[in-house]
Specification:
Blueprint: H1 3-12, H2 19-26, H3 33-48, E1 51-61, H4 90-102, E2 107-112, H5 119-135, E3 140-144, H6 152-158, E4 163-165, H7 175-178, H8 184-196, E5 200-202, E6 205-207, H9 213-226, E7 230-235, H10 252-265, E8 270-273, H11 277-281, H12 285-288, E9 294-297, H13 308-317, E10 321-322, H14 332-335
Parallel strand pairs: 1-2, 1-9, 1-10, 2-3, 3-4, 4-5, 6-7, 7-8, 8-9
The structure holds iron/sulfur cluster.
């Protein structure tokens, strides 16, 4: 059997590919690209049909972060001209969420910049979760508040949260190259805390930081081991004013190969195209829907995405359908595997009957790392053409008086 039929076969049986097979996917040529997409597309359709899940970000607190994640526009010392504001009130957050839900999203991802939350912050976010749940029946809510302290995950779950996002970002061996104010182990610990509390864990990566193929495969295998229900794949947005502003490594072809590799290594998991979708995939976005079964509708935390209407048209034109509120996102074995999230009545993502999400999402928090700093990039991707023309700092929605994009 050749590489692709072997990977399809393993993907349909949820058998872990070898690292060599995963590396081989990243090393395929542009001439083989459509074969790679077709093969990974079979695995995607086997577990998720032609459904595309829409998630909506609400940035509860923007900028002003004491951490130094080198990829992040909200980091300490960032000169990126992003919005800076402190906590949204529960009704403001609920209003922002309602726009996304009206646009077709079924999950709201509540994100706050910062190392982690105080217990008072958790109380504040719990109020917001309750407000959103009361006003939007069956909605899924994910929280993404940085590192978790003991008991915080349980309290978020009691407040009605279905999921918790905390990305690993990159490989353990290069993590200290992108952040010095917390560790890779801190991140793993937070994902495990979310799991243990019965929340659906969501944890992903950032590509495009100049990392090697080996680093990318490392972080995806670490994610498979952590077994989140959803894996956001961010493509670095090199924000002016951050240490990684010059790191342009991604081409649409490279992004498609990375998404295919993630699909083969995590076949039955919600793979989400997160930040950088528009900037790096550009006209290849519809093709990427053959690999990922989830996207963010509207804007990212600190940068603007394409119009929500354009996303809906793209999904329909590509022959996919928006996943309905009453449809279960995850395959049966995963949907029924987890602990309860207390919102069994809402069909949602299906794990624990309604949990799962993704964040420090994109466009500037938690999950954005930078390239070039990852040291010995054995097979680092060559530099790509900088597309700063496509990077738009968010100037609407949460924290502003302008209507959100949804
Ligand atoms: S990724 Fe999160 S923790 Fe890191 S600098 Fe950005 S907001 Fe702070």
């Amino acid at each position: 059997m050749n590489l692709l039929s072997t990977l399809v076969d393993k993907g349909l049986r949820r058998e872990l590919p070898t690292r060599e097979e995963a590396l081989a996917v990243l090393a395929t040529s542009d001439d083989e690209l459509l074969d790679v997409v077709a093969a990974a597309g079979r695995v995607r359709r086997h577990w998720f049909g032609r459904r595309v899940k829409l998630n909506y970000l609400v940035n509860l607190k923007s900028g002003l972060c004491p951490e130094d994640c080198s990829y992040c526009s909200q980091r300490l010392g960032s000169k990126a001209g992003i919005l800076k504001y402190t906590w949204l009130k529960p009704d403001e957050a609920s209003e922002a969420a309602a726009a996304g839900l009206a646009g077709g999203a079924k999950r709201v991802c509540l994100v706050a910049s910062g190392r982690g939350s105080t217990d008072r912050d958790v109380d504040r976010v719990s109020e917001t979760i309750k407000a959103i749940k009361e006003q939007n029946e069956g909605v899924e809510v994910c929280a993404c508040l940085g590192l978790l302290s003991d008991g915080q995950a349980e309290r978020l779950r009691e407040a009605g949260a279905d999921a918790y996002n905390h990305n690993l970002n990159t490989s353990e061996s290069t993590y200290a190259d992108i952040t010095t104010t917390h560790t890779y182990a801190d991140r793993v610990d937070t994902v495990q805390k979310a799991h243990a509390a019965g929340l659906s864990a969501c944890s992903g990566l950032i590509a495009g930081m100049g990392e090697s193929d080996e680093d990318l495969v490392d972080v995806v295998y670490s994610l498979r081991e952590l077994d989140p229900d959803s894996v956001p794949v961010n493509f670095l947005i090199p924000f002016e004013g951050t240490p990684l502003a010059k790191e342009w490594h991604l081409t649409p072809q490279r992004c498609l190969r990375i998404l295919a590799m993630v699909r083969f290594v995590c076949p039955d998991v919600e793979v989400r195209i997160a930040g950088g979708r528009e900037v790096h995939l550009r006209s290849m976005q519809p093709l990427a829907l053959n690999l990922a079964n989830s996207i963010f509708l509207g804007d990212y935390l600190t940068s603007e995405g394409q119009a929500g209407k354009a996303d809906l048209e793209m999904i329909a034109d590509a022959g996919f359908e928006v996943e309905g509120a009453g449809e279960v996102t995850l395959p049966e074995h995963r949907a029924t595997a987890g602990g309860g999230c207390g919102s069994h009545e809402s069909a949602g993502c299906g794990s624990h009957e309604s949990a799962g999400c993704g964040s420090h999402k994109s466009g500037g928090c938690g999950s954005h790392a930078g390239g070039g700093v990852c040291g010995a990039a054995a097979t680092a991707a060559p530099a790509a053409e900088p597309r700063t023309d496509l990077v738009a700092v968010r100037r609407r929605g949460a924290g502003t008086d302008l209507a959100p994009n949804a």
